[in-house]
Specification:
The structure holds two protein chains of two kinds. By secondary structure, chain A is an alpha/beta fold. Chain A has helices at 15-33, 51-55, 64-73, 77-86, 95-105, 130-142, 162-184, 190-212, 225-235, 242-261, 290-298, 327-336, 344-357, 372-375, 378-389, 408-434; strands at 41-44, 60-62, 121-126, 146-151, 266-267, 270-271, 277-282, 302-307, 362-368, 393-398. Chain A has a four-stranded parallel β-sheet with strand order 2-1-3-4, with helices on both faces. In chain A, helix 11 (290-298) links the parallel strand 7 and strand 8. In chain A, helix 3 (64-73) packs across helix 5 (95-105), helix 4 crosses helix 5 and helix 11 (290-298) packs parallel to helix 16. Chain B has 14 helices and eight strands. In chain B, helix 1 crosses helix 8 and helix 10 (250-258) packs parallel to helix 14. Classes of the chains: A alpha/beta, B alpha/beta.
């Protein structure tokens, strides 16, 4: 074990961690009391979420995927999923959807134990995931409320065309904004949007700096397990807010300090001491056994230096920033640019560049049963990336929030074999270099 | 041709996983090209207008031994992409000069990217269609997407696709749609005369035959079947739903009918029935195709239904207009669109007091006895306990 002390130390909470915890908790509180306080609630998905726009209408933001993953981390999702399956939802389909529907069926109590009131508007940004469209229809079937649907075309040929952008912009101007005005009773103010986008761009700048800090040796962050925390505010109800900007500034400072001190990432058991293997990971994490899963990596001195999942709510490390000077077009480009809205060849190129730029020793796919948007084609991606990078690739299967699909012994066994293979390959490479 | 000869010729086309008919068609003219497309919907009129043959690629069925295809997919992904990859990597799709992947689900969408990686020399296009059904918004987007496809096909074919070419193709496909409507109406009126396995084979033939030949084949079939008298059984009348992408083995359709259910409507080969009426064959052909898509196309699980109260209406209407007594949901295993949609469609049926049953299948399902028993029990329950 490579943790500073062999005994479980008390986890040192850095300022950014405390800030994020407070932000999330406050948002669940705001949702619980929104209607009492005369506020309206929107429900929307993470990829392609239009948080800045929703803020322009003073809507409190509810994100079903966040509820599902938070429920999973609190060991509640399994019951919700079974509840949904009992009411006729197939065992074959996305467990985020079933966790959400099961939670609704069981009284709509959110992950923190506070009520999640019925939303006043459903905003479906159909971005990079077909299931979103059906999920939205299923949720709409439960709630009798206003709905707005934004179809974001798929970047099949690796580029955003004018037609795609125009289509999204037109939907925003002609349909989404008028619906939000009607629901909220607040007139759209583009200057307010510009200000939020300015905040977003600043936060995005800091997030990218943090993610790219993993190019250091040792990496001061884990860009998958730690990365999901770092992306939390910007992927959910906070992008565009001053709180988010402050969070990312604080996070950047903390990571900069760690770089300066030559420290590795913070894990639940303290600072990782020795970095033995650097990985790039494709696919979402498992949430039901998140800490056990992470431990399988840090116990072996394995750090993830780049991941695709941390791009699912927006790809910022190839230059995109929200642009206050072109606010609506910028929202369109953001939606179009989310990771799973990219073609498979684009995803392969992106991951290959990570392998190279982050000097990774291997490429790992965590293939998620629930998520065909990510998973379909991953075996071909794996072969392509292995071939192009010359680095060994590994493959494991888990699920998002269904505890029945996390086989701890199986995953651990596979990972240990994979890590051994990487070490052997590295050793052979080192020996060759020495001779 | 006699009825048996027609059905047998369709069966030969169905069994031919090497698409030799496509190769033969190409060999009959210099520079001829064929464009494959996955199920659900692509505007075949554009391919035809380019002088090319549209070829429906609907997986490998239950006769293809999938060896390579399984190496590309996890166990929890449906069967059609793995058998389609199998067809391609074993050279059975070599006659195709391009491949279109309609907007169906994430698996088919990602298959387009796999095709780009595996077959870099071929035309590969993910054909995105609008989920926004406002003519000025979704329609405008779709017009430009259609134009891109028109340009790509023109480039591949080495010649412009004129409006006149498109008008001529639209006319031919209108005739085809008309013939299919006649076939389906005939089956609905006298399902004992037109068994669904035969309808299925006829529709599959349309996936490889030139459109005019297929139209003639349907006319010939209807004429031939009217000369024979087949016994009417005391079967119940059902609509089957969920077969729009991965195809049922032929034995599954036979099993349903043998179990006492006449299928009076279905959703397989939707590409041929997608547009519910003729497309105007004058004026701007691209705009006409777009308006047809936006304003009179089928409702299926691959599409968004903008109004909550409309969800399932299309299926309910199909039940009513075909005087069906129930619905059989037959969804392929791991099919996101069909399986996610099913509870909502079931709710719509329940609200109207329409009975239904549901099961899953794969294109290579071999054990059909449980399906036969389930369909038989469903038929019995309708016959014994329905209000009628």
């Amino acid at each position: 074990m490579n943790i500073a002390a062999n005994q479980k130390p008390e986890v040192h909470k850095e300022e950014s961690m405390l800030m994020q915890k407070e932000m999330i908790s406050a948002n669940f509180d705001a949702l619980a009391t929104a209607h009492e306080e005369g506020k309206k609630i929107s429900s929307t998905f993470v990829p392609g979420n239009l948080n800045e726009l929703l803020m322009c209408f003073d809507l409190v933001r509810n994100l079903p995927e966040i509820n599902a993953l938070q429920s999973a981390m609190r060991k509640k999702s399994g019951g919700y999923i079974m509840e949904a399956e009992r009411s006729g939802h197939s065992e074959d389909v996305c467990t985020y959807v079933k966790s959400d529907l099961g939670m609704m069926a069981k009284g709509q109590i959110g992950p923190t134990g506070k009520p999640l009131p019925t939303p006043d508007v459903l905003l479906l940004s159909y971005t990079g995931c077909f299931t979103f469209m059906k999920w939205f229809e299923l949720v709409r079937d439960q709630y009798d409320c206003e709905t707005a649907m934004l179809h974001v075309p798929y970047q099949a040929d690796g580029e955003i065309t004018d037609n795609m952008r125009d289509f999204v912009v037109m939907q925003l101007k002609e349909q989404i904004i008028p619906t939000l005005e009607r629901v909220s009773g607040i007139k759209f103010d583009i200057d307010r949007l510009r200000e939020y986008l300015r905040q977003s761009a600043q936060a995005e700048e800091d997030l990218v700096w943090v993610l790219e800090s993993a190019k250091n040796r040792p990496s001061p962050i884990d860009a998958y397990f730690g990365g999901v925390y770092y992306c939390g505010p910007i992927f959910s109800a906070f992008r565009g807010s001053q709180e988010a900007t402050a969070y990312y500034a604080a996070l950047r400072k903390e990571v900069a300090d760690r770089v300066e001190m030559g420290l590795g990432p913070i894990t639940p058991e303290g600072v990782m001491q020795e970095e033995r293997i650097r990985l790039v990971v494709e696919g979402p994490p498992n949430w039901t056994h998140f800490r056990d899963f992470w431990k399988m990596f840090y116990d072996e001195g394995v750090v993830v230096v780049a991941s695709s999942y941390t791009k699912v709510g927006g790809v910022y490390d190839f230059g995109f920033r929200h642009d206050p000077d072109n606010p609506i077009e910028s929202l369109a480009d953001y939606c179009l640019g989310c990771y799973t809205n990219h073609s498979l060849p684009s995803r392969v190129n992106m991951l290959c560049s990570y392998m190279d730029e982050y000097e990774a020793d291997g490429f790992l796919v965590n293939s998620i049963k629930s998520c065909n948007s990510f998973s379909a084609g991953q075996l071909l991606m794996l072969r392509e990336i292995e071939e192009r990078s010359g680095k060994p690739a590994g493959f494991i299967e888990t699920d998002l929030v269904d505890p029945r699909y996390f086989s701890s012994a199986n995953v651990k066994n596979r990972l240990e074999s994979y890590f051994q293979m990487i070490e052997q390959k590295k050793a052979r490479g080192d020996a060759k270099t020495a001779t | 041709m006699t009825l048996n000869e027609i059905v047998e010729s369709c069966q030969v086309l169905y069994d031919d996983l090497s698409f030799s008919r496509v190769s033969e068609w190409k060999a009959r003219g210099i520079g001829r090209k064929a464009i494959g497309h996955m199920p659900v919907y692509v505007p075949r009129e554009l391919i035809h207008a380019a002088g090319m043959l549209p070829v429906g690629i609907l997986g490998g069925g239950d006769q293809l031994d999938v060896i390579h295809g399984d190496a590309y997919y996890q166990s929890y992904i449906c069967r059609i992409p793995r058998s389609t990859i199998e067809l391609a990597v074993t050279g059975r799709l070599d006659a195709l000069d391009g491949m279109l992947f309609p907007s169906t689900c994430d698996v088919i969408r990602n298959l387009s990217g796999m095709w780009q990686l595996k077959f870099p020399g071929k035309l590969v296009r993910y054909f995105d269609v609008p989920q926004n059904f406002d003519l000025d918004i979704g329609g405008a987007f779709y017009i430009r997407e259609l134009q891109v496809l028109r340009d790509q096909l023109a480039e591949l074919g080495g010649r412009e696709i004129t409006d006149a070419d498109l008008h001529a193709s639209i006319l031919l496909y209108n005739e085809n749609r008309g013939a299919i409507r006649e076939l389906y109406a005939y089956r609905s009126a006298q399902p004992w005369q037109v068994p669904t396995p035969e309808v299925y084979l006829l529709m599959r033939a349309g996936m490889v035959l030139p459109v005019d030949e297929h139209t003639q084949l349907i006319h010939d079939y209807i004429a031939a079947v009217k000369t024979v008298e087949r016994p009417a059984r005391d079967n119940c009348r059902v609509v089957v739903n969920g077969l729009f992408c991965e195809q049922p083995p032929l034995g599954l359709l036979k099993s349903i009918e043998m179990a006492g259910c006449y299928i009076v409507d279905d959703d397989f080969m939707l590409v041929a029935r997608w547009l519910l009426d003729d497309v105007p064959a004058e004026g701007d052909p691209i705009r006409n195709l777009s308006e047809a898509f936006i304003t009179y196309s089928v409702e299926t699980s691959c599409k968004y239904v903008p109004v909550r109260e409309d969800k399932g209406k299309f299926l309910v209407n199909s039940v009513r207009s075909n005087q069906a007594e129930g619905v059989i949901f037959a969804a392929p295993s791991f099919c996101d669109p069909a399986l996610l949609d099913r509870p909502m469609l079931q709710k719509a049926l329940a609200a109207q007091g329409i009975p239904y049953t549901a099961f899953k299948f794969a294109e290579n399902s071999g054990q059909l006895q449980p399906i036969r028993e389930q369909a038989g029990t469903f038929a019995d329950s309708i016959k014994l306990w329905s209000a009628a």
